[in-house]
Write a structure and sequence with these properties.
The chain is mainly α. The protein has 17 helices and no strands.
Length: about 475
C-alpha cells in the first residue's frame, strides 16, 4: 500500500471508525430496546438472549475467515461488501414480523459485520506503520466504542419512546451508505504480499464449537439434560478437532503459533473476559432498569450515561498511555475498576440505591474505557504485517465470543434464578450469581494483564515474531520454487 499523507491517513481512520460506530451503536441501542421487543414479540429471556447472541455468535464464527479473506483478495473490497450486507441486514431487521425472523435477520447483519471491524483494524494497522501513531489511532478507535456507548442508549431511548423499537435499525442505513461511498473514494486497496489459502475444515470446526456451546448454555435452564448434552459433546469434539487439525496445516485459519506470545495470548483472554463482562453488564442493567424499576427506554438510556461517558473519556487516554508507557497501566486500571464495579452489585446490591448504582456504572465505564485499546494494540503488535488481518480478527473474535458467552451465561443464571417467581420480586436476588461471574471476569483482566505485560512476556512476543517471520520467509521461498 502506498504511503499516505497525514491528512489522508486521518481520513482513512475516520472512515474505518464509521464502520465500528454502526456495529457498536447497533449493540448498545438494541439493549435499550430489549424490553419493548419482549412485550411486542412476546419473547422469553432466552428469546432476548438470542436477539443479541445470534449476531455476536455469527460474528465470532466468521471474523477470522473475513480477516484472512481480506488479506488474500483485498481489504477494501471485503470492507465494502461488509458495509453493503450490514446495511441490508439492518433494513431487514426493521421489518421483522416476529422473533424468529428478527434473529435470522440479525444473523444477516452479522455476516456483514464480520467483514467490517477486523478488516478495518487491518487497514488501520497497514496505514499507521509508526508504533506511536498506531497506538494513538487505536486509542481513537477505542473512543468510538465509548461514543457508541454514550450515544446508543440515548438515541435508542428516544427512538424507542417516540417511534418504536424498529427504528433503532434505521440509524445504520445513512451511516452505512456514507461509509460505503467514502471508502470507494478515499480508502486505498491493500492485501497481504502472499495470499493465504482457505481453511474450510477449520472454519466448520469453529462454527460447530461456538454455535453448539452457545446453544447449550442459553437453553440449559429450560431444556432437559438429554437435549443439551449432544451440543456439549459437539463443542468438545470440535475443540479437540481444532487443536489436532490446525497445527498440521501450513496456513491454518487459526495459527496456534500466535499463542506462544504471552501478550497475544493474554490479549485474547482479556478480550473474552472484558467483553463477557460488558455483555452480562448491559443485559442485567437494561432488564433491571426497565422491567424492575419501571423506567421507560429514554430514562433507562440516561441511567447508562455514568457508564458510557467514562468509557468515552478513558479510551483515548488509554491509547496515549500505551504509546508512552506500554499496556500494563491501562490494563491494571481496567481490571481494578471492573472488579470493584461488579463487587458493588454482588455484595451490596448496588442497583437498589441510586448512589451505589451511579458509582457502579461509573467504575465499569472507567474500566471498560481502559481495556479496549491495550487488547487491540497487544494483539497486532509484534505480528508480521502480512498477517495483520488474521491477528486483528483473532482479537475481534475474542471480543465477540466473550460478549456471546457473557449474555449466554449471565442470562441463563438469571433465568434459572427467577424461575416461576414474580420477575420484579426475584430479579435482584437472581442476578447476584451473575454479578459474581462478572467479578471473576474483572479479576481475570487484572491478573492476566499483570502477567502478560512484563519483561518475560515481551520476550516471548519477540521470539514468536522471529519464528513467524522465519516461517513466512520459508513458505514464500517454497511457493516461489514451486512456481
Amino acid at each position: 500500500m502506498p504511503e499516505l499523507s497525514p491528512r489522508r491517513r486521518k481520513l482513512v481512520l475516520a472512515i474505518c471508525c464509521m464502520s465500528l460506530l454502526i456495529v457498536s451503536l447497533d449493540n448498545t441501542i438494541l439493549n435499550v430496546a430489549l424490553p419493548s421487543m419482549q412485550r411486542e414479540l412476546q419473547a422469553s429471556t432466552a428469546g432476548l438472549q438470542w436477539t443479541i447472541d445470534a449476531y455476536t455468535l455469527v460474528l465470532a464464527s466468521l471474523l477470522m475467515l473475513a480477516g484472512s479473506t481480506a488479506d488474500r483478495i483485498g481489504r477494501k473490497r471485503v470492507f465494502m461488501a461488509g458495509l453493503v450486507v450490514f446495511t441490508i441486514g439492518s433494513a431487514l431487521c426493521s421489518i421483522a414480523p416476529n422473533l424468529e425472523a428478527l434473529v435470522a435477520f440479525r444473523m444477516v447483519q452479522a455476516v456483514g459485520g464480520s467483514m467490517l471491524n477486523p478488516v478495518a483494524m487491518s487497514i488501520i494497522t497497514n496505514t499507521f506503520t509508526d508504533p506511536r501513531e498506531r497506538a494513538r489511532a487505536i486509542g481513537v478507535w477505542g473512543a468510538v466504542v465509548g461514543i457508541s456507548m454514550a450515544a446508543g442508549p440515548l438515541v435508542g431511548g428516544l427512538l424507542v419512546e417516540s417511534v418504536g423499537w424498529r427504528s433503532i435499525f434505521w440509524v445504520n442505513l445513512p451511516v452505512g451508505l456514507a461509509a460505503l461511498l467514502l471508502t470507494l473514494r478515499y480508502v486505498p486497496e491493500s492485501r497481504a504480499d502472499r495470499a493465504r489459502r482457505p481453511d474450510p475444515v477449520g472454519q466448520l470446526l469453529v462454527i460447530a464449537l461456538f454455535g453448539s456451546a452457545t446453544y447449550g448454555i442459553i437453553e440449559a435452564p429450560h431444556a432437559s439434560a438429554a437435549t443439551v448434552l449432544p451440543f456439549a459433546v459437539v463443542a468438545v469434539a470440535a475443540l479437540i478437532g481444532l487443536l489436532a487439525y490446525e497445527p498440521r496445516r501450513a496456513e491454518p485459519l487459526i495459527d496456534l503459533r500466535f499463542f506462544r506470545s504471552a501478550p497475544f495470548s493474554g490479549a485474547t483472554v482479556i478480550a473474552i473476559s472484558a467483553f463477557a463482562s460488558l455483555g452480562g453488564f448491559l443485559f442485567l442493567s437494561t432488564l433491571y432498569l426497565q422491567n424492575v424499576r419501571g423506567l421507560d427506554a429514554l430514562h433507562a438510556g440516561l441511567w447508562m450515561l455514568p457508564m458510557a461517558v467514562p468509557t468515552l473519556v478513558c479510551a483515548p487516554l488509554a491509547g496515549r498511555l500505551i504509546g508512552s508507557r506500554g499496556p500494563r497501566l491501562p490494563l491494571l486500571i481496567a481490571g481494578v475498576a471492573m472488579t470493584c464495579s461488579s463487587l458493588l452489585f454482588a455484595v451490596f446490591d448496588a442497583e437498589t440505591s441510586d448512589v451505589t448504582l451511579f458509582l457502579g456504572y461509573t467504575l465499569f465505564g472507567i474500566g471498560f474505557g481502559f481495556v479496549n485499546a491495550p487488547i487491540t494494540n497487544t494483539a497486532v503488535s509484534g505480528m508480521p504485517r502480512a498477517q495483520a488481518g488474521v491477528a486483528a480478527a483473532v482479537a475481534s473474535t475474542s471480543r465477540q465470543l466473550g460478549q456471546t458467552l457473557g449474555v449466554a451465561v449471565v442470562g441463563a443464571v438469571l433465568a434459572a434464578g427467577v424461575g416461576a417467581a414474580a420477575y420484579e420480586d426475584a430479579f435482584v436476588d437472581a442476578a447476584v450469581p451473575g454479578w459474581w461471574i462478572l467479578t471473576g471476569c474483572g479479576v481475570v483482566v487484572l491478573v492476566v494483564g499483570l502477567l502478560s505485560s512484563g519483561r518475560w512476556a515481551r520476550g516471548t512476543a519477540e521470539r514468536t515474531a522471529e519464528k513467524l517471520d522465519a516461517a513466512e520467509v520459508r513458505q514464500t521461498v517454497g511457493a516461489s520454487e514451486r512456481h
